[in-house]
Write a structure and sequence with these properties.
single chain; 635 residues; Rna Polymerase Sigma Factor, Chain: A; TIM Barrel; Oligo-1,6-glucosidase, domain 2; 4 domains; six-stranded antiparallel β-sheet; 39% helix; globular; binds alpha-D-glucopyranose
Length: 635
């Protein structure tokens, strides 16, 4: 059955593309990835019916793909690991906050290139609903650009300029939900049964109440509950996030076909990677929390395989902010290994770095990371210190117990510490979405403010400022030195602080994630002042050092452990290109590194790649506060 259907599909594709100069190439790709496409579809749908529809999309997208993007496909197929390599460095920005509009971004490409950036994620820029729109994550039209940012033509022009500068472009694909004002939702509200079936709609509370028993609330403070009554539908519609973000019904194959088409459309405008927003939520199952269901991975495999055939230069990046046991599946496990997303956010690493800095203790970090299952060698973590979202204190209870701590207690400590409430805290953050029922509190704030720069500036103490800046850079060194694709969040390279201006904007004021979404301060960027210059120089030094270290290629995993001193954390990367040992002092005190504590490197002079110094680990060595050392034996 499968073989016949896949062979029929090949004939269909060949007929649709007869005369196309690249027919042999696309059929070769079909032969390579159609079985994976079939397998993914079969888990969820009647694959024999859906496959021809997906092939129709593939043919259309291929015909619409420009000669230059087809050439990019060939180049990327020859170097499929470009995003895993040590020289891959990411940057994440809002178009308007970074540069006004898409034309503005074009005029700042030199800045990104000088910084060493090779990958740019522009935050949501497709047309959102009017008014509140969750920072653009309530999309009304996936085929047009938000009017004040420019047009689709501007986006394509920007993509080609970025490509010419050696920078790949990532766009968000919001696939769990659409805005209530999206055409599909409007038609459903108008009574069209075809589109009603794009959503999860229930006539009364019976089924919603049954689901609610196991569902958490993502925004308990401003959007409690997971269902919203809609008069047009005359029913309750599933709304995991805000009431104007309607969850899509991925059990309906028409939804998959629509999204395959949108993915092709965005790839053909020049996107190199799509960020699969909130992907964990896309499949619902009664009696579960409706996250991380196995079908999510089957659906991703189907879409990924279709993308490989129609636009092989395109990567998938999973935004699954889920626990350590669940997240690895987004890079592929078991039957899906190597067949789903290429990149996934390493939320645990981010949380653990902040946790280690607050506790001055790396044991929990080392324990949590050592429990991660391996990821496919063709994939990579997206590592980061901050992003546009809050930090959820995702400390696993079992990990905490393993180091003798209490999970709930440590999560409470972190929430209070980073809100600046804990005695002696260096941080200036804010609580986000406190949930009195669960005791859960998340945190907003910029990297510099959370790392202590804001408090140090307030105190006027130069010593405190030095310490805070060293702490911030130490944290970023872990992000850049972990392996995977490091993502620098806009403004962090300048040490930008919390921005309270959102409080005066009614469309933003109840969402304090805007605290860490400041407008880029180009005066800071151009006219070096103390803090800015120091952070910028240090970040640039990390980037330069990283690019010269092949051992940071993501195909090799990082082993993390602490020395006899819990404040001294070691990352070890055993790579065929040479072993890399990274040493981090997680405290504001000088520590001592004893000979033998970071083996297996031979004692003797080692090259420290960030500073360029030579360090001899054969004798006890002084490890300054927040030191970050990347060591290899000289050739
Ligand atoms: C993702 C986004 C977040 C948004 C949510 C709903 O988690 O990062 O900003 O609120 O999805 O789209």
């Amino acid at each position: 059955m499968a073989d016949t259907a896949v062979a029929d599909g090949r004939r269909l594709l060949a007929a649709r593309l007869a005369g196309d100069p690249d027919l042999t190439e696309i059929l070769t790709r079909y032969d390579r990835w159609a079985p994976d496409l079939w397998d993914g579809l079969s888990v969820v749908y009647d694959a024999a019916t859906v496959l021809p529809q997906v092939i129709e999309v593939i043919a259309r997208v291929h015909l619409d793909r420009s000669a230059s993007l087809r050439q990019r496909d060939r180049e990327r197929l020859l170097r499929p690991d470009w995003f895993q390599a040590a020289d891959a460095i990411g940057y994440v920005a809002y178009t308007d906050l970074f540069a006004g509009d898409l034309q503005g971004v074009r005029s700042h490409i030199d800045y990104l290139r000088d910084l060493g950036i090779t990958y740019l994620h522009l935050m949501p820029l497709l047309t959102p609903r009017p008014g509140e729109n969750d920072g653009g994550y309530a999309v009304m039209d996936y085929r047009s650009v938000r009017a004040d940012l420019g047009t689709m033509d501007d986006l394509s022009a920007l993509a080609s300029d970025l490509h010419a500068a050696g920078i790949s472009l990532t766009l968000d694909l919001v696939l769990n939900h659409v805005a209530r004002e999206h055409e599909w939702a409007m038609k459903a509200r108008g009574g069209d049964p075809h589109y009603r079936d794009y959503f999860h709609v229930y006539p009364d509370r019976a089924i919603p109440d049954a689901y609610e028993k196991d569902l958490p609330e993502v925004f308990p403070a401003f959007a409690p509950g997971n269902f919203t009554w809609d008069d047009g539908l005359d029913g309750w519609v599933w709304t995991t996030f805000n009431e104007w973000q309607w969850d899509l019904n991925w059990a309906n194959p028409d939804v998959l076909v629509e999204f395959a088409d949108i993915i092709g459309f965005l790839a053909n405008r020049g996107a190199d990677c799509i960020r699969l927003d909130a992907i964990a939520f896309t499949w619902k199952r009664l009696g579960t929390n409706c996250q991380n269901q196995p079908e999510v991975h089957a659906l991703t495999q189907a879409l990924r395989s279709a993308a490989h055939i129609m636009a092989p230069a395109l990567l998938f990046k999973a935004e699954a902010i889920v626990g350590p046991q669940d997240v690895v599946a987004y890079l592929g496990q078991g039957e899906h290994a190597g067949k789903v997303s290429d990149l996934a956010y390493h939320n645990s690493l981010m949380v653990q770095i902040w946790s280690a800095l607050a506790a001055r203790d790396g044991r929990l970090l080392a324990t949590a990371l050592s429990r991660f299952r391996p990821i496919p060698v063709t994939s990579a973590w997206a590592t980061y210190l901050r992003c546009h979202d809050d930090i959820g204190w995702a400390i696993d209870d079992a990990d905490a117990v393993a180091v003798g701590w209490d999970g709930f207690g440590h999560r409470s400590f972190l929430a209070e510490f980073y809100a600046g409430e804990f005695d002696g805290s260096f941080a200036r953050g804010m609580h986000f979405q406190s949930n009195p029922e669960t005791g859960d509190r998340r945190t907003s704030g910029s990297a510099a403010s959370l790392a202590g720069v804001e408090a140090a500036l307030e105190s006027g103490s130069t010593a405190a400022l030095d310490t805070a800046l060293d702490r911030l850079i130490c944290a970023y060194a872990m992000v850049f030195g972990f392996g995977g694709l490091p993502l620098l969040y806009m403004g962090d390279e300048l040490g930008m602080l919390n921005d309270h201006t959102y409080e005066d904007d009614p469309a933003k004021s109840d969402d304090n994630r805007w605290l860490h979404r400041p407008e880029m301060d180009w005066t800071l960027a151009r006219h070096d002042s103390g803090v800015t210059e120091r952070v910028f120089t240090a970040i640039r030094r990390l980037i330069t050092a990283r690019k010269a270290l092949p051992a940071l290629h993501a195909a090799v995993a990082t082993e993390a452990f602490v020395t006899d001193d819990p404040a001294v954390l070691v990352f070890r990367r055993r790579h065929p290109a040479g072993t890399l040992i990274e040493v981090y002092n997680l405290s504001e005190e000088t520590r001592v590194l004893w000979p033998g504590s970071v083996s297996p490197l031979d004692p003797g002079p080692l090259l420290e790649h960030i500073s360029g110094r030579t360090i001899d680990l054969g004798a006890p060595v002084r490890l300054p506060p927040y030191a970050a050392w990347w060591l290899t034996a000289p050739e």
